[in-house]
Every structure is written in C-alpha cells, then in structure tokens.
Amino acid sequence: MILFLTRTYFPEGCNGKLECEGKLICHTIELPWKNNETKVSCIPEGKYFIKKRYSKKFQWHLEIVDVKNRSLILFHPANNALRELNGCIAPVTKLSGPGLGLMSRTAFVKLKDLVYQALDHKESIELIVQSGFLTVEG
C-alpha cells in the first residue's frame, strides 16, 4: 500500500492531504519546516515506511520509520500542531487553519484501521511525503 501525503507549507505549520489510490483518507497537520530540527520541524519530504507501535500515552498507533536524524515520528491525534506535536503527523477530519485541524481522533481511527488491516495482510505501507498546493479549507 502506498500513501501519499501532499503538503502545503505555512510559517505556522503544514497542512496536508493523505491519499491512497487517489482517494482521500484524511487531512493532516504538522509543524512548519525548520530544516528537520528535532521537536520543532516537520520531517523532510521523501519515502518512508510505516509500522504498528504501542505506547502507554497513545496506545496502538503508527510510527514512521527511518526518518533521517529523527526517531519516534508518529501518526497520532492532535488538533494544534504547535501545541501538541513534536515533529509527528496528526490526521484530522477538517483543516481549520495553518497547522490546525478538527476531529483528529476520528481521522486517526480511520487511518489506523486502514493501515492495520493492510499490515495484518502482510502488506508493506509506504508513505511518500511531497509538496503540493492545498487550500486551507481542503
């Protein structure tokens, strides 16, 4: 399975859309680009793989592996990138501003269910992060 994350960059954060086979899964929010600095920047554009991960804080969630000079880059719920993210990606149902979104938990469950189902069938999950053009409304 290949997921495409197409970003639009703003000084306050990144907004994106996450698609699979041309179908929208959800929107995303991230921190702004700050040269891949730990805890203050989104991750670089490129190709990554996703795996299941468990923690007490987020329970079962998704980890993006092999991010250059970074670790523990996750997909987890958040509605405000600057307040709630340290470089991770938050799925959201609707974008509400640069780095801001609504109903993140709903979007996260939808994404997690899709990815876990593919992983349970022994599929690899590839994430391609790229830049694009997206309005704030989505």
TrEMBL record:
Superkingdom in the source lineage: Bacteria
Domain DUF5675: 5-116
InterPro entries xrefs: DUF5675
Protein name: DUF5675 domain-containing protein
Annotated organism of origin: Flavobacterium nackdongense
